[in-house]
């Protein structure tokens, strides 16, 4: 059987195998290594030998054996270093209502990997490996860092989980909401990393977007939280525009100029259905609002036909929840589309006083666009060049320079 | 009367069973299968005679956790045993007519090919009053 389909089969099994091991034997960090090795063995053997009758059971058996091996080596080493005893404030019984099953384990793993005690880079890397089933090499490639760096990052994150003695149980009560927010944020960061890398040559890394969507689907299946549905919808509706985002030569195409016929209708349908099903439930949070905005863009046949006043209203709701300068930038552009470029420019100029965004290339690029719309090509050109100087992304720089050159006439 | 037959093994014995190369030659798959067949046959027989209460095997000693209290708080040590330390590996509880019968059953659990191997048989108390000499 082809290698690609073996991988498709293995990735969803990864958290189930790891969950089974950690639940039975503990040792999150070592069990994670053992699981990775079992996945690797399967990836090399199954294409040649065919699938075992029960792939999951096969993986659990191989991973358990490997875990025993790794533990022996570790404990022999540790004994020589004088046995390390761990404080056990963690032997708290899991909540009585938690029914252990695979789905539950994947969720517990997500909560563990995205624990707030880990640095964001560690959360992301560990989530992709432990829950996503990606190898360290794959994670390293996705983030354009050397494999040795990624190995250290993952190892450190796992050690921190081990040393913090977190129980293998889902967080309960008031803590759950905060921990779920952390999980959502990590998935959001993974998607963003794939969608627009802040530095480097490649504008789009589809693997990470696909992986983030896959994990968000998993989370959506496991929880009934409207913000999870919102995040999944936001990813789908954003990813829908991918085929139109770059020209044949790799240049960036802004949404206003994208060929909307290239947008993925299936993604749009799924995303808008999620938004429609979730928003009326109340408990509206930032991911649902952003998804609603993305849905309005995706459903519009053209820029002009977009419901800009509605988008302005949604941005204002977002700002009421959380005053964020990037949201203010987007809000300014929406205001310009609804009420004319001068209204937007006034808001952007006011944002020049906000240190967090005054020098951000996005503020300058937005100003340039609006100046162009307002019929001020000279000022627009200066603003495009100012934005290009401040951007870290080559594709963006090329785009901004091209816009400036067009106005040089 | 109930008796507990206790079988012992060290991490090294488990390694031999798992076919891991080490200081001792690993068990072949055939030897391991023969051992399982032998154990199953005994337990099946005990089930038929109505003498079997329960039988369980334990995972490798490397997976053990030792729990102590230090200043009132539990402290946990992972895998506390040395490589060659013999620890409980499994047990069979029987209910039978006499200690001698239990001993007769227990003798069948000892591998004749393993020099020095032993099992222990211990009577189970009926209640706390038995312990109050």
TrEMBL record, chain A:
**Assigned keywords, A-Z:** Sigma factor, Transcription, Transcription regulation
Report domain RNA polymerase sigma-70 region positions.
Answer: 10-75
According to the entry, every stretch annotated as the RNA polymerase sigma factor 70 region 4 type domain falls at 111-161
> Is the Signal keyword given for this protein?
no
A Pfam match is Sigma70_r2
User: What InterPro entries does UniProt report for this protein, alphabetically?
Assistant: DUF6596, RNA_pol_sigma70_r2, RNA_pol_sigma70_r4_t2, RNA_pol_sigma_r2, RNA_pol_sigma_r3/r4-like, WH-like_DNA-bd_sf
Q: Which domain of life is it from?
A: Bacteria
Task: List the Gene Ontology MF annotations in alphabetical order.
Answer: DNA binding; sigma factor activity
Give any single GO term for biological process: DNA-templated transcription initiation
Record-annotated DUF6596 domain positions: 179-277
The similarity annotation says: Belongs to the sigma-70 factor family. ECF subfamily.
What protein name does the entry list? RNA polymerase sigma factor
Supply the source organism for this entry.
Answer: Micromonospora terminaliae
UniProtKB/TrEMBL annotation, chain B:
InterPro entries per the UniProt record, alphabetical: Dimeric_a/b-barrel, YCII
Alphabetized SUPFAM superfamilies for the sequence: Dimeric alpha+beta barrel (SSF54909)
Q: Which residues form the YCII-related domain?
A: 1-118
One Pfam family this sequence matches? YCII
To which protein family does this belong? Answer: Belongs to the YciI family.
* Protein name in UniProt: YCII-related domain-containing protein
> What is the native source organism of this protein?
Micromonospora terminaliae
């Amino acid at each position: 059987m082809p290698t690609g389909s073996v991988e498709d089969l293995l990735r969803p099994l990864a958290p189930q195998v790891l969950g089974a091991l950690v639940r039975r034997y503990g040792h999150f960090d070592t069990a994670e290594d053992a699981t990775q090795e079992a996945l690797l063995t399967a990836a090399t053997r199954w294409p040649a030998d065919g699938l075992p009758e029960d792939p999951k059971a096969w993986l659990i058996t191989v991973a358990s054996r490997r875990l025993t091996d790794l533990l022996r080596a570790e404990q022999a080493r540790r004994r020589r270093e004088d046995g390390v005893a761990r404080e056990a404030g963690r032997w708290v019984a899991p909540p009585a209502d938690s029914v252990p099953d695979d789905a539950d384990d994947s969720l517990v793993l997500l909560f563990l990997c995205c624990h707030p005690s880990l640095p964001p880079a560690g959360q992301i890397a560990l989530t992709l490996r432990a829950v996503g089933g990606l190898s360290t090499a794959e994670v390293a490639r996705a983030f354009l860092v050397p494999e040795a760096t990624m190995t250290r990052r993952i190892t450190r994150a796992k050690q921190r989980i081990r040393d913090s003695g977190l129980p293998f149980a889902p967080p309960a009560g008031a803590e759950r909401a905060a921990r779920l927010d952390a999980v959502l944020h990590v998935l959001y960061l993974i998607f963003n990393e794939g969608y627009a890398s802040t530095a480097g040559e490649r504008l789009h890394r589809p693997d990470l977007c696909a992986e983030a969507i896959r994990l968000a689907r998993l989370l959506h299946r496991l929880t009934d939280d409207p913000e999870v549905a919102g995040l999944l919808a936001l990813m789908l509706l954003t990813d829908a525009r991918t085929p139109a985002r770059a020209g044949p030569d790799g240049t960036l195409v802004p949404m206003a100029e994208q060929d909307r016929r290239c947008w993925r209708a299936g993604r749009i349908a799924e995303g808008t259905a999620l938004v429609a099903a979730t928003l009326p439930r109340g408990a509206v949070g930032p991911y649902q609002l952003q998804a609603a905005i993305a849905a309005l863009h995706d459903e519009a046949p053209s820029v002009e036909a977009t419901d800009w006043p509605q988008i302005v209203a949604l941005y204002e709701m977002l700002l009421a929840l959380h005053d964020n300068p990037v949201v203010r930038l987007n809000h300014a552009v929406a205001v310009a589309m609804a009420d004319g470029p001068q209204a937007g420019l006034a808001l952007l100029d006011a944002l020049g006083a906000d240190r967090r965004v005054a020098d951000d290339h996005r503020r300058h690029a937005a100003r340039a666009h609006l100046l162009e719309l307002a019929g001020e090509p000279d000022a627009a050109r200066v603003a495009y060049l100012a934005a290009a100087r401040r951007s870290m992304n080559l594709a963006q720089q090329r785009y901004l320079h091209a816009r400036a050159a067009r106005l040089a006439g | 009367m109930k008796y507990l037959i206790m079988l012992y093994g060290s991490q090294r014995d488990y390694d031999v069973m798992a076919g891991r190369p080490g200081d001792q030659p690993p068990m072949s798959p055939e030897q391991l299968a023969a051992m399982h067949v032998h154990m199953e046959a005994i337990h099946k027989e005990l089930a038929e005679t109505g003498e079997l209460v329960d039988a369980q095997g334990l995972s490798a000693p490397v997976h053990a956790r030792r729990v102590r209290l230090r200043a009132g708080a539990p402290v946990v040590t992972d895998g506390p045993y040395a490589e060659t330390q013999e620890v409980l590996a499994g047990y069979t509880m029987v209910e039978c007519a006499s200690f001698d019968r239990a001993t007769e059953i227990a003798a069948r659990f000892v591998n004749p090919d393993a020099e020095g191997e032993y099992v222990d048989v211990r009577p189970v108390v009926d209640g706390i009053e038995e312990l109050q000499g």
